[in-house]
């Protein structure tokens, strides 16, 4: 078993910024190719997304759906060990109220994201 531990903080921040905040589809595809394994799976609360192109499409659709200033912002550093990393985040339109909060949980294999679980916090009451 390998004792190599990836830089979870760098990897998960890059995923948020270069994939889920990237509006240019070509740049997003390049980032996904660098950050994800060849056949990644993303688990959303109501969907399972398989493959790099499908993950890119979901990210692009989210950005399009919520408007030109919508963005995801990390709320601290990612933590991880033994192939599992977690990064908490919030999302909102620039200057607007926070729309959603959650966390990304990544299974990392050979230095790349193999599986990504998108966990959403319940809305504040």
From TrEMBL:
In this protein, which residues make up the domain named SnoaL-like?
A: 19-114
- Judging by the UniProt lineage, the source's domain of life is Bacteria
The signal peptide, as residue positions, is none
InterPro entries on file: NTF2-like_dom_sf (IPR032710), SnoaL-like (IPR037401)
Protein's UniProt name: SnoaL-like domain-containing protein
Give the transmembrane region(s). Answer: none
